[in-house]
Design goal:
The protein is an alpha/beta fold and 212 residues long. Helices cover 43% and strands 20% of the residues. It has helices at 39-50, 65-71, 78-90, 105-119, 133-141, 154-161, 167-175, 177-195; strands spanning 7-11, 15-18, 21-24, 30-31, 34-35, 56-60, 95-99, 123-128, 148-153, 209-211. β2 and β3 (21-24) form a beta hairpin.
Length: 212
């Protein structure tokens, strides 16, 4: 699973707000589709960097209407929050890029494919949550980009790199009512894709990467 990539793209997946600011969503955070648990993607990205798998890390997702409705007009882009937490884990060594124009998974993947073409990245790893992988693979296939992308489970990376440190947290998240709802919704989303009734949701403009 662990190899070298021209870039690693991390799909952001929701925020939580604490007294000290914004954080990637934890396994106890959820939305109308169920558990989020997206902070594990940041840890996985840091583990990939430490393993020497890539030096360029792209964080993808801007500010959606849902995020503004939940947190208010001043909410930061998810890519900014995730990149800040990644830097705290990985240090100043990696090159960090932000893609803040897409606001959903389908948009994320189109943006990643476009940025890979622009950056002449021959190989890209896309990091997301285990529950997300099947839908992400199919959505990416439908971009028709031809990009050599590998899709990596954040949970699998972290459990291999940090034995026992997060296993119980991950198991509890997936076994929770919100976790079961999420896996059910993901199965339904994939079925909707195959049936031609998938709603990609909110759309924004073309992707423009910026350094973090």
């Amino acid at each position: 699973m662990l190899t070298s990539y021209d870039a690693v793209a991390v799909l952001c997946g929701g925020l939580r707000r604490g007294e000290d600011g914004y954080h990637p969503a934890s396994f106890t955070d959820s939305d109308e589709h169920g558990m989020l648990g997206s902070h594990i993607r940041v840890l996985a990205a840091a583990d990939l960097y430490r393993a020497g798998c890539a030096s360029v890390f792209l964080f993808s997702t801007g500010i959606s209407r849902k995020s503004r409705a939940r947190f208010g007009a001043q909410v930061p882009a998810e890519a900014v929050v995730y990149a800040d937490h990644f830097r705290a884990e990985a240090g100043d060594g990696p090159v960090i890029l932000l893609e803040q124009d897409s606001v959903n998974t389908a948009g994320n993947l189109r943006a990643i494919a476009a940025l890979a073409r622009e950056g002449q990245w021959a190989t890209v790893a896309v990091v997301t949550s285990e529950y997300h992988l099947s839908r992400v693979r199919e959505l990416f296939r439908r971009t028709g980009s031809g990009l050599a992308a590998e899709f990596l489970s954040a949970e699998a990376i972290v459990m291999a790199a940090r034995p026992g440190a997060h296993d119980a947290e991950i198991a509890a998240g997936y076994a929770s009512p919100a976790g079961l709802l999420r896996t059910s919704r993901e199965r339904q989303g994939l079925a909707d894709l195959y049936a031609g009734r998938y709603d990609a949701g909110e759309q924004l403009g073309p992707a423009q990467p910026v350094p973090a």
